[in-house]
Design brief:
This protein has 233 residues and is an alpha/beta fold. 48% of the residues lie in helices and 14% in strands. The protein has helices spanning 52-63, 77-80, 87-110, 127-138, 151-154, 156-180, 191-204, 216-232; strands spanning 13-18, 27-34, 68-75, 117-121, 144-148. The chain has a five-stranded mixed sheet. 43% of the residues are buried.
Length: 233
């Protein structure tokens, strides 16, 4: 389905995230701003509908298109594991950080002549609540933030943000694989990820440094390897 939400009439920027669900690696949120006279490149869609190669191509086009500003916020595994927070709050934090950075960059390049408005892909069952929490976290005046479920499908701006966030996440995972070997996709259902996690714990007696160790996947892997060690003993 092609994007249907009009660009310049309603929103100046879109926001989406990638990597909320994996047990390995960081979560990334991206914001994409389009200036008054800029045009988004062709081929934008929800990142999940594109091949990795196509995402890379569109992301490169976005980064080289005049009038398009991009900001990325990273939430590390260490931050995710902090006992004082949760993934819903961290997703709000990621969106808010990306928005704050994109507005700073856009204002410096365009002069910030009009109050901006933006659209987030809602990461809460209540889209209005998510928009309100992101807006409050930004601490910015004269900025309108909306949220909508499925915005990465309906809005070309949010679709563009989903592509940037996913490419950042993919590059992050590729760097981990280059250093540690095949870690899989990082998702709990990925058998390669499960096997790597269990092997790493067995070999090193601890979780890999990029694991979200507070997650049940890690706890189950630790219990499994501990039981295996007792049986061997």
């Amino acid at each position: 389905m092609p994007p249907t939400l009009p660009l310049g009439d309603m929103y100046r920027f879109g926001v989406d995230e990638a990597g909320k669900g994996p047990v390995f690696g960081s979560m990334f949120a991206a914001a994409v701003w389009v200036g008054e006279s800029a045009t988004l490149p062709e081929g934008i869609a929800d990142s999940k509908r594109l091949t990795p190669a196509r995402r890379e191509t569109v992301a490169k086009a976005l980064r080289t298109t005049p009038g398009v500003e991009i900001a990325v916020a990273e939430i590390t595994p260490e931050r995710i594991d902090e006992a004082t927070t949760d993934m819903n709050s961290l997703t709000v934090e990621a969106h808010a950080r990306a928005i704050s950075d994109i507005l700073e960059g856009a204002n410096s390049s365009t002069g910030g002549t009009s109050p901006p408005s933006g659209l987030c892909d809602a990461c809460d069952t209540d889209a209005d609540r998510f928009a309100r929490r992101v807006s409050e976290r930004c601490h910015l005046e004269d900025v309108t933030i909306d949220a909508r479920h499925g915005a990465d499908d309906d809005s070309p701006l949010v679709g563009a943000a989903s592509i940037i966030a996913k490419v950042e996440r993919d590059a992050h995972m590729a760097a981990l694989a280059e250093e540690y070997g095949d870690v899989g996709s990082g998702y709990p259902s990925d058998r390669t990820t499960q096997q790597f996690l269990e092997s790493y714990i067995t070999d090193h007696g601890e979780f890999p440094p990029f694991a979200r160790r507070s997650w049940s996947t890690c706890k189950r892997a630790l219990a499994k390897t501990s039981q295996r060690g007792l049986e061997e003993f």
